[in-house]
Amino acid sequence: MSEIRLQVQNVCKTFGITKALQDVSFNINKGEVHALIGENGSGKSTLTNSLTGIYQKDSGKFILDGEEIHPKNQVEANNAGVSIIVQELGTLDGLTVAENIVLGHEDRFVKMGIKNTNAMNREANALLKQYGFDRIKASDMVETYNFEDRKLVEIVKATYFDPKIVVIDETTTALSQEGREELYKQMNQIRDKGNTVIFISHDLPEVLHMSDTITVLRDGVYIDTVRSADIDEEGLK
User: Fold this and answer.
1) Nearest to residue 225, comparing CAs of 237, 234, 236?
2) C-alpha span between 169 and 50 (Å, rounded)
């Protein structure tokens, strides 16, 4: 029997008069790619943004490996073991590639108030090489790279510290086929380590191909969770 990684319990979120999430509850297991699907406005991104500290839920609980988490921002979510690759651009202009990768964890490279930039760049370059992205250089300003390369930097940023859960929110739409294949490889590696991917995509063939489990949301309401092997595109519509 699969071991539960994340319990989503009675989560609610409103924006003004809009009920973005209405008492949503379901479980996500260890060692799986768990897809969230639904039309625009179904609550997929609202849920994962609440999980990763981008939004603050109104009520309900996120229980990760048996302990409730309350991230107030993405750094706190990272520290709890949850990261996200967002749909829009997730790297910051004015920072180097290395500074973007370690953002929120810069203290690892600070001693007596002095930042060891060389050590940070060495580690970031080693990570980029490990991922096969060594054409991207740690010391370069991130804005010198195109959108897709910046997405590759985000993949490193979101996964290098071996998080328990990685949220991938509509990222594949911004990538070429080569970029998608690299992301798929990372998703499989995360799952094979026993960790979890929460995968949001409107591409149903992609969802069925990459996921183990699918949860359907509609108008902020939980509808169902199914095994990917037990359903087809028609059944998901």
Assistant:
1) 236
2) 13
Q: Which amino acid is at 30?
A: K
Strand ranges across the sheet with 4-15: 18-29, 4-15, 59-64, 67-68
β-pairing, 82-85 with 165-169? parallel
pTM value is 0.93
Let me know the angle formed at the C-alpha of 156 by 151 and 159, rounded to the nearest 5 degrees.
120
Q: What is the pLDDT of residue 1?
A: 61
For 179: left if phi > 0, alpha if psi spans -120 to 50, otherwise beta; the answer is alpha
* Six token digits for residue 193: 């380590």
The tokens of 51 are what?
């999980």
119-123 — which CB contacts under 8 Å span 24+ positions? 121/96, 123/98
Q: Tell me if 55 sits within 8 A of 13, measured CB to CB.
A: yes
